[in-house]
């Protein structure tokens, strides 16, 4: 499959910079799967033949080097017959944004076993906490599970949570919901696992406008503030690639809605 090779090659080039191994083919009854590993963490690229979709996964490796339970990071529908090169490139750009998260890079560089195991709060817990602040997310979360069979956390946060946080920050910066969000972000940053921390800093807060970003940055704890300063600088260096990616994603989304 040319699309799989394109996405695999793009991920390989980026992950090699972070010290990951060459793609290793693995058996998976769902379809074609390759794994990129470094220290005790790994990413997986899967094309699910039955459901016609690409999935970017992450896991912590066991003592014997075998992958543990996989966690889905991003999911995109892709029809092998109708999907175009532009669709595949759009999916690749989305996956690259996930693996370029600074906290992910830091963990690989440190190569400290057990780091993720010390933090047990996962993205699902984070999303459920968000539902307490934005009750309307409950129906959207259920729809996400029905349509895709699981929650595409990065995509869901950007589509449903970022706009609400942006609106709150712009209209009610000193409101109780904003204070609750800041408290939640601090809690997730301190106690969340690798995926949760990346979602809070990269997928959510770094997707806000400059003014909204400042509202939250000024109200979160010192530890998270320091990370966000670095995160924002990282985003500033990639303005053009992000614009290109967003333009291409419009091509892929109609494909997702047809299935």
TrEMBL record:
Pfam families: DUF7674. Residues 128-226 form the DUF7674 domain. Residues 237-251 have a biased composition (Basic residues). Residues 237-259 are annotated as: Disordered. It comes from the Bacteria. InterPro entries: DUF7674. This is DUF7674 domain-containing protein. It comes from Candidatus Acutalibacter ornithocaccae. The lineage of its organism: Bacteria, Bacillati, Bacillota, Clostridia, Eubacteriales.
